[in-house]
Amino acid sequence: MCPSKVAQGDERGWIVPIGGAENKDGDPRILARFVALAGGPRAEILVIPTASQLRDAGSRYGQLFGELGAQRVEVVDFQTRHDGHDPERLARIERASAIFFTGGNQLRLSSVLGGTPAAQLIRARNAAGITVGGSSAGAAILSEHMIAYGGEGACPRADSVHLAPGLGLTNRFLIDQHFRQRDRLGRLLAALAYNPFAVGIGLDEDTAAFIGPDNTLEVEGSGSVTVVDAGALGFSSMADAGGRDPVCMLGLTLHVLIAGATFDLATRTASPGALLADRT
Predict the structure, then answer these.
(1) Is the pLDDT of residue 280 over 70?
(2) What is the pLDDT of residues 203-247, one digit of tens each?
(3) pLDDT, average across residues 185-213
(4) Given pLDDT bands bounded at 50, 70 and 90, which one contains residue 1?
(5) Does residue 204 lie within any of the structural domains?
(6) Range(s) of the domain holding residue 255
(7) Is 111 within the bounds of a domain?
(8) How does DSSP assign the chain, residue by residue?
(9) Number of domains composing the chain
(10) CATH of residue 138
């Protein structure tokens, strides 16, 4: 699923994947920054709770975004694929200044929304400049290739990851969430063995990657973002591996970024960013 083209003279909107369990009370800086990008006091945020089985998932974020200063928050669920064709829901996507996907099950998101006019419109609206983000499952769905599920552990294995088509806002990266808390390095590496073009982004809980129109990723939150660059991958044994076989991968570059650090997805270069400025 290819990203929508950015029209000449326009800038793509921000993409904001969050690793899950973001701070919602004491220090909600991730969600506060999302509201600011959505327009602050002029923000009109559309919350999509389709991934979740919790009845109050959407209303909880609606309340939080309102408390953080958004002018208007709407919660719009998509229960069936027919809903993705509904003119009223499409109109709400059209007028939103930002869209936020809650956590839950990313396969539910992709199976309900994938290929519908709603999914196409969300891609087009992001290409036209609005911010799109999500937490946990809502983060996983944002890229072209989505990690649907997989096993735990640091070692990549042939069967440690299962991929599915995502929303397709970008094809530059693959996202995994609850990264350090659920020991998911191995499945992110396995995903990159299948698709070395992309950059792997492993998001800890209460940690977000704010990815700007210039394809620069900046970290926000209390944890870290593990960036794995397979661009110089020199060898992979994935084609010959099967089942629980470990996979050999040579030539990977790994960065661990904390709040303020950046990674340029175009040049594939990491920087301490604001961390360096704090020391000078």
Answers:
(1) no
(2) 999 999 999 999 999 999 999 999 999 999 999 999 999 999 999
(3) 97
(4) low
(5) yes
(6) 15-266
(7) yes
(8) -PPPPPPTT--PPPEEEE-SS---SS--HHHHHHHHHHTGGG-EEEEE-TT---TTHHHHHHHHHHHTT-SEEEE----SGGGGG-HHHHHHHHH-SEEEE-SS-HHHHHHHHTTSHHHHHHHHHHHTT-EEEEETHHHHTTBSEEEEEE--SSS-BTTSEEEEE---SBSSEEEE-STTTTT-HHHHHHHHHH-TTSEEEEEPTTEEEEE-TTSEEEEEESSEEEEEE-TT--EE-GGG--TT-B--EES-EEEEEETT-EEETTTTEEE-THHHHHT-
(9) 1
(10) 3.40.50.880
Mean pLDDT value of segment 260-264: 98
What pLDDT is recorded for position 218?
A: 98
CB contact set of 244 (below 8 Å; sequence gap of 6+): 157, 158, 159
State how beta strands 262-264 and 207-211 pair: unpaired
CB crowding 54-69: b at 16 or more within 10 Å, else e:
eeebbebbbebbeebe
Q: What's the distance, CA 218 to chain centroid?
A: 13
Cβ-based neighbours of 280, under 8 Å, separated by 6 or more: none
- Is 5 part of a structural domain of the chain? no
Neighbours of 130 (CB within 10 A): 24
Unique residue bearing structure tokens 């704090």: 278
Active site residues: 136, 178, 205
Other C-beta atoms within 10 Å of 243: how many?
7
On whether residue 4 sits in a domain, the answer given is no
